[in-house]
Design a protein that fits this description.
By secondary structure, the chain is α/β, with parallel strands linked by helices. The chain has helices spanning 7-11, 16-27, 35-43, 52-65, 69-78, 91-97, 99-113, 115-121, 124-153, 159-181, 184-200, 259-276, 285-290, 304-310, 312-322, 332-347, 350-362, 365-369, 372-381, 393-409, 425-428, 469-492, 538-543, 545-567, 588-591, and strands spanning 253-254, 257-258, 279-280, 294-297, 415-418, 441-447, 450-461, 499-505, 508-517, 520-530, 592-593. Among the domains are: 7-122, no CATH class; 127-200, no CATH class; 389-580, no CATH class. The protein contains 25 helices and 11 strands. The strands form 3 sheets. Strands 4-10-9-8-7-6-5 form a 7-stranded mixed sheet, sandwiched between helices. The protein has a two-stranded antiparallel sheet with strand order 1-2. A two-stranded parallel sheet has the order 3-11. The longest helix has 30 residues, at 124-153. This is 1499_t:CDS:1. Residues 180-200 are annotated as: Disordered.
């Protein structure tokens, strides 16, 4: 069977500006060139055409425009010399004569001219890529049809008009859904069949009402809280979700083990669980995050499904390989002065201890750099013994948590601490409706007196929620998605950075760092700190200052990287081709089981132990 191409599609060639853009954005930033890598890069840019023929032509034209050895080799592999070296020159003539001759010419000519690229185009990776593109287009069309139906039906005053619109919309959606389910030949048959039914249809006879557009269930949806329209976790059509193998050269390996391949296997296993038994928020944090390509690594807190596929030794080895190496440590002299100041509170008075430490700080920059002002602020504001009443979330933030985060990260002219009450812009950019749930905490980068990016996010649960396993698991999932959104935006700005996040449950803080490694958003646990609630707990806090130094070190490197790109804009980072999608508005009944049970097995151990040591 010959494919039928339109005259416009066959004659259109990439413009010089299009070729220049892909040369700068892909060929000059990618070491190894291949069609599948090029397609993955193109899918992430704004001018992706969704046309297989046009994208392949753009790849070939860019190779022709380049003149180095690698380009010549790639072009030779892509378009080896043969009896017909310029097939496109004949296309307009053939098209004008006869469409059938056109198709015959193309099939014969292209088989002679491009034997190697046809082999590449017939590879499973390329086939699967275009199959997913077709599915995405169909899904977007369904969403647009449903949205258009919703808008128009509100204006229908005539019942017959409403019925006709309902039937037409229903048939259009069925056509697109059938196209998603079958192979190419079956799709064509189903489309023709539905088309005939549409032409023969009479609105007065035998019609079926269209299913209303899918809306979020405000009552039963566990991810929607009071007064909340849209949440971070969004899933759309789990049946079509599948994670395929790509170019092995793009995979992350440790020795002979292909970690990327194992992760894709784990992702598909998570999809299967969601279809058969459902994913529980309390028990399947790792699996839910994996569906957005987030690989959560927290030693001794791996899920059973992860261990079944990776094995705990390999998971620990991956964690050790990717966790950032700490360059700074708490100076022994500084540690001694901190403990001396705490002792002075006990033996003398608060005022004497704070005056002494303030004098030390004024003459010792090294003491300031080692969190000296945080220690001073704690001595000035904490009670000697912990207050028995549990603080609310706002009190926990203002009286205990804020002083730590502000002292560690706040710089009013470069990066500022915020406890926002608005949605995260990085998440709004991903959502079609422009709405997003806000995190409890962000660190925003300032450039030209404007907020230009977020590189640190956090969620807080007060003591009253420490045993709420469901909420705390859900918060960790939200943190992962927030971090991914921020990382994607930074990569688009050309910054090869890491994004940080924390979860505070009662007085315990867990810190995470995320990096994009070969298509996997590695969300790695880097340390735990207990926020002091009294002077008596200060000595324990001094033990953990080194963890805060590590967090600040990672933060400063990421800030410097992003800020330099804001000052000197550049093309997107080469990591752009490894970006992956975040799941969209949920069918939670298909993916996440909506029941809650604090006694379910939880790999993160929320609610199992008293959070204080």
């Amino acid at each position: 069977m010959f494919a039928v191409y339109s005259t416009e599609e066959m004659s259109s060639e990439p413009t010089e500006s299009q070729i220049t853009v892909v040369i700068e954005g892909f060929f000059k930033t990618t070491v190894t060139w291949s069609l599948i890598r090029f397609l993955q890069y193109r899918k992430e840019v704004d001018d992706f055409t969704y046309s297989k023929r046009q994208e392949h032509r753009l790849y070939r034209s860019a190779l022709k425009a380049l003149s180095d050895d690698q380009a010549e080799t790639s072009l030779l592999n892509f378009e080896p010399s043969s009896a017909i070296t310029q097939p496109d020159a004949f296309v307009p003539l053939v098209v004008s004569l006869c469409p059938v001759l056109c198709n015959l010419y193309l099939d014969v000519a292209l088989s002679l001219v491009d034997p190697i690229i046809l082999d590449e185009k017939s590879s499973e990776a390329v086939k699967n890529f275009w199959l997913l593109i077709d599915k995405e287009r169909s899904k977007h069309e369904i969403e647009n049809i449903q949205l258009d139906y919703t808008k128009r039906v509100l204006n229908d005053t005539n019942n017959e008009t409403h019925q006709i619109r309902t039937v037409a919309t229903n048939n259009a959606i069925k056509t697109l859904k059938h196209a998603l389910e079958g192979d190419e030949s079956n799709r064509e048959k189903k489309k023709k069949s539905v088309s005939r039914k549409e032409r023969a249809h009479s609105p007065a006879l035998n019609y079926s009402l269209v299913e209303p557009p899918m809306l979020v269930d405000r009552i039963n949806n566990p991810f929607i809280e009071k007064d909340e329209v849209d949440d971070i976790l969004v899933i759309d059509d789990v049946d079509d979700l599948y994670f395929m193998d790509g170019d092995p050269a793009d995979d992350y390996k440790i020795e002979e083990i292909n970690v990327s391949q194992l992760f894709r296997k784990y992702q598909n296993n998570s999809v299967n669980i969601s279809k058969t038994e459902g994913l529980f928020v309390e028990s399947n944090i790792h699996e839910i995050l994996s569906l957005s390509s987030i690989f959560l690594l927290n030693p001794d807190s791996h899920s059973r499904k992860m261990i079944d596929i990776f094995g705990s030794p390999l998971l620990d080895k991956i964690h050790q390989r990717i966790i950032p190496t700490q360059q700074t440590a708490l100076d022994a002299e500084c540690e001694a002065k901190f403990r001396d100041a705490i002792k002075r509170v006990t033996k003398e008075s608060f005022s004497h201890a704070t005056d002494w430490l303030m004098a030390e700080l004024s003459n010792n920059k090294h003491l300031k750099d080692n969190m000296g002002f945080i220690i001073l602020d704690c001595l000035r504001t904490l009670p000697f013994t912990k207050i028995k009443n549990d603080p609310s979330e706002m009190t926990l933030v203002t009286n205990y948590l804020d002083r730590i985060m502000r002292g560690m990260l706040h710089d009013p002219n470069r990066h500022i601490i915020e406890w926002p009450n608005t949605g995260l812009d990085e998440s709004k950019a991903r959502k079609s409706g422009g709405r997003a749930k806000q995190p409890d905490f962000v660190v925003s980068v300032i450039h030209q007196l404007q907020i230009c990016g977020v590189i640190f996010v956090g969620e807080v649960s007060p003591p009253s929620e420490k045993n709420n396993v469901y909420k705390n698991c859900k918060d960790l999932i939200r943190i992962g998605v927030f971090m991914k959104d921020c990382l994607d935006v930074g990569i688009e700005k050309g910054a090869d950075l890491k994004v940080l996040g924390f979860q505070c449950v009662e007085y315990k803080m867990d810190f995470y760092v995320m990096d994009l490694i070969h298509g996997m958003y590695m969300m790695t646990h880097i340390g735990q700190v207990y926020i002091p609630s009294s002077i008596k707990e200060m000595n324990l806090f001094v033990n953990e200052v080194e963890t805060l130094l590590k967090v600040r070190e990672i933060f400063c490197k990421s800030f410097d990287t992003l800020y330099s790109k804001l000052c000197n804009p550049s093309p997107p980072s080469p990591k752009t081709i490894f970006k992956r999608n975040t799941l969209g508005t949920p069918k939670f009944n298909e993916l996440v089981n909506k029941t809650r049970n604090c006694h379910r097995d939880c790999p993160m151990w929320y609610g199992r132990f008293d959070s204080k040591r």
